[in-house]
Each structure stands twice: as C-alpha cells, then as structure tokens.
Amino acid sequence: MKILLTGGAGDLGRDLGPLLARYHDVKVLDIKKPDNDLEFVSCDISKSEDVEQATKGVDVITHLAALISADTSTQFIDVNTKGTCNILEAALKNGVKKVVYASSVWAASRGLSVPYLPIDENIPCQPEGMYDITKRMGEEFCEYFYRMYGLNTMILRLCGYYPVEGFSSEGDILWDKIDLPEFAGRFVGTGPAFKLTNAWDLTQAFKAAIEDEKIQHDVFIIGLGAPFMREDAEGLKNMPLAVLEKYYPGASEFFKEIGVDVPEIRFWYNTEKAKKHLGFSPKFALQDVMKQYYENKEK
Ligand SMILES: NC(=O)c1ccc[n+]([C@@H]2O[C@H](COP(=O)([O-])OP(=O)(O)OC[C@H]3O[C@@H](n4cnc5c(N)ncnc54)[C@H](O)[C@@H]3O)[C@@H](O)[C@H]2O)c1
What is the mean pLDDT of residues 68-75? Predict the structure, then answer.
C-alpha cells in the first residue's frame, strides 16, 4: 500500500518510516527532510491546498505531524488542530482509504486524577494542557469525519515512545547491550513509564492499524500494559513489590538484582483492546524479560 507518513522527520517518524517501508511503499510528509532515503514531500499541514496536493494517490495516511511544545496556544491549534482537520479533509477529497492518527493518552488524561484504574479507552477525557486538548480535538475530528462522511479513521492513543538502548531491528533483546534497568523499569512505572521501548513495537502497532480490514473507526491505547486489577490500586501505592509478586513471582528479587527501586505505582494502562482487536501487543511482557534474564545468566 502507498502510505503517507506525516511527521516522518520527528522522533517517532524517523524510527517508524524505514521499518514500515519493509512492508509498504512509504512517502514522508514533513516541513523538514528526514535523514533517510524515503520519498519525501515538503509540506506544512496548516496549509490546506498543499495538504490536498500532497495526499493525492495515497492509500493510507499515518498522521504523526504535530507540535509537542509551542510558545503559544495558537501555534498548537494551527498545527495539531487545523493541520489534522486539513489532513482529514484532504483524505476525504482524494479517496484515501484510512487515516491512522497518532494521538496521546494525554488527550484523555495525564493519569494522576482519574475516576478509575486501570486507564482504558473509556476513561473520561479531561485534557490538562494545550498540547493535550489539541490532540483530543484531533481525535474528535477523526470521529466526526467517520460518523458524517464514513472516512475510516483509527486513533492510536500512544502512551509514548522513548527508545531504550539494546534492541535488534526485529525487536529482540540484545543481552550484551540492553539497558535492563531502564527497560524493565518501564513496566513498573519508572522513567518514561509505560512508553514503547523500541522501533519494532512502534512499527508493529502502526502496521496493525494500517492493515486491519474490519474496523471502521476506533481508539486504542498503545503502550506497555500491566495485568494489575482495580483492587490492586492501594497496594500498588503502598506496597508495590507485594502486588508485583502476585503477578510476577520473583519480581522483588529480580528488581533488586538489576538495581531498580520500584516506585509507588499510581496509575497504569489497560492495553487489552489493542491486543484483542488489532492483534498488537509489545514483543516482550515483564515475565518474558525476567525469564530471558535468568536463562541468559545461567549460560
Ligand atoms: N513522543 C512521544 O512519546 C509521544 C507520545 C504520545 C503521542 N505522540 C504523538 O506522536 C506524534 C509524533 O511525535 P514525536 O515525538 O515524533 O514529535 P516530534 O516533534 O519529534 O515530531 C513531529 C514532526 O512533525 C513535524 N511538523 C511539525 N509541524 C509541522 C507542520 N506544520 N507541517 C508538517 N510537519 C510538521 C516536525 O517537523 C517533526 O518532524 C505526534 O503526533 C505526537 O502527538 C508522541
């Protein structure tokens, strides 16, 4: 399929583009050129005529272009809101089959004051900043273009992406290189908690959304999930290791051994919907990491 990857020169797009090109014909749209050989079109998404031109002959748009930080609210609105609206309008005009929108869990909430746990796709949306609300508006536009015009739109609410050193291009752990405290800690709320850790997982999530043929419109949380239940919330705040032991026997010893102090876990995400309907989950869950770690140690 011909895929237009907007924001292909950004942090996610630079890692996603080349891997996605293993499966599809990828063209990058951005205001700056990425340092790779992918076909490139220079285009500012806040300019509707340019967007209409750049989206001709495309099957699917994966829409990542956005401002993550800005000096003024208007800048956020111009790119994240108006830009996303331009992408959707152009997709409709040009007969694009689907738009996969890179949203953020922050479109709903930053997690610290939520009415229930774990956070899932139904959590009430109460954005807490201009970036957050403009990502939420992008989601609303996706839903509107689907409901009113039948445009196929998929929303990936990313917990985020912050790569960890030490993965192969197939997403396998390179045990002589992996930053294990950083990687394993992600599953229990340390550092950029719950964010995807490698380009393989990021690519598989977008690939699954692009290639799905059943879903017309939906929203999916994409990140490192956790098996904890609602009733674990107090324990995860007060005695996280005791709760971890319940789900991952040996976790206390494992985290001690790799030098990670497990913090109080105040929120976490339910990522089961993406697994069930898109067939996507990150290549490794915490139990796989622990298992491979001990197998490797014995060698
Ligand atoms: N980084 C994360 O952890 C994270 C978390 C949740 C969601 N997301 C979403 O993923 C997407 C990519 O994020 P990122 O971290 O790669 O951001 P980034 O800032 O690194 O990249 C964004 C890209 O968009 C381009 N861009 C900005 N304004 C543009 C315009 N007017 N026209 C065309 N291109 C423009 C930039 O040049 C840049 O290459 C964003 O939509 C973001 O909201 C990211």
Answer: 97
